[in-house]
């Protein structure tokens, strides 16, 4: 296997392992993986619905359904946008913030074994490289 093939193969394998871990965490809280993503996105922002749709790579009607389900659980709330009266922003409720914090801690715990064999320097380097890939 050539180096680029090995990088792609390892990247795919890590991706599958991460998705499996995230899916298990989500399922343990009766959430879909996409709902987990929504809570993660909303931890530090209150986007307009269209922005949330772009973040998730979904159409607005799909995001509307996701937000409706999360709102029924008391995790998110919609509010009129202050800068654009036609837009709606979505944000976490106090219950949603609590669950998002729990999920963040749980994800960190289940992901820790994946990087446990790396030195602190390697973990930092990995973080930088992953950040570059996502930029």
Automatic annotation (TrEMBL):
PROSITE patterns: HTH_MARR_2 (PS50995). One of its GO terms (molecular function) is DNA-binding transcription factor activity. InterPro entries: HTH_MarR-typ, MarR/SlyA-like, WH-like_DNA-bd_sf, WH_DNA-bd_sf. Residues 4-135 form the HTH marR-type domain. SUPFAM superfamilies: Winged helix' DNA-binding domain. GO terms for biological process: response to stress. It comes from the Bacteria. Pfam families: MarR_2 (PF12802). PANTHER family: TRANSCRIPTIONAL REGULATOR, MARR FAMILY (PTHR33164), TRANSCRIPTIONAL REGULATORY PROTEIN (PTHR33164:SF107). This is MarR family transcriptional regulator.
């Amino acid at each position: 296997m050539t180096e680029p093939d090995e990088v792609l193969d390892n990247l795919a394998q890590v991706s599958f392992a991460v998705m499996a871990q995230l899916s298990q965490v989500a399922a343990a809280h009766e959430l879909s993986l996409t709902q987990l993503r929504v809570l993660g996105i909303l931890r530090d922002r209150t986007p307009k619905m269209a922005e949330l749709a772009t973040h998730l790579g979904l159409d607005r009607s799909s995001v509307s359904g996701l937000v409706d389900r999360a709102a029924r659980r008391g995790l998110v709330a919609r509010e009129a946008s202050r800068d654009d009266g036609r837009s709606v922003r979505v944000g976490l409720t106090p219950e949603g913030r609590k669950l998002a914090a729990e999920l963040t801690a749980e994800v960190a715990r289940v992901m820790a074994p994946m990087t446990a064999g790396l030195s602190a320097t390697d973990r930092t380097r990995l973080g930088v490289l992953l950040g570059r890939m996502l930029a």
